[in-house]
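Researcher: I'm preparing a figure for a lab meeting and need a structural model of a single chain. I don't have an experimental structure, so a prediction will have to do for now. The sequence is pasted below. Please return the structure as tokens so I can convert it later.
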Amino acid sequence: MLNILLVAALWLPLSAHAAKNILVFGDSLSAGYGIAVAESWPILLQQELARSHAEYRVVNASISGETTLGGRQRIAAALREHRPAVVIVELGANDGLRGYRAADIEANLGGIIEAVRRTRAKVLLVGMRLPPNYGEPYVTQFGRVYPKLAKKYRVRLLPFLLEGVASQQFQADNLHPIKEAQPRLMQSVLKELKPLLR
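Model: Understood. Here is the structure written out token by token.
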């Protein structure tokens, strides 16, 4: 009996801790491309949550260059490893920039969301937009993917991660925000994340 109690006492804090992980599952916009990782928005989010929601820990599994298909292929392993309570899904920009079919992007993101929901974790879907030079039909198709998925799966949506980032706050590639823009990204994510932490 004593052994059972000891095992229970050890197991409960570990499982409680694991259940409080917030998994950031994205691409270079979340991986800190071109800046020090310590200056990236997921690290700033961890610092903010340490003050306001200390029971949560941010785990960043973002990979520069990641596509929705790549994310779909590795989400199961990430969920097993980190056992998150919340998953922030920030993928699709690379697909869009490469002109991948909107239907395929939608299917892959849907597969990721379904995998997360099977674990009973909550989802924050982070949307993206494409520059107008990709043509109005494709830009529109791409832009509809995120709100469509949010409605279908009833998950929380941040419509556009880069909303409000000034043109001078991008790196030379005009795609990745500089360190000065990271606090804005963090605040945008935090605003939509907070209701999932209740």
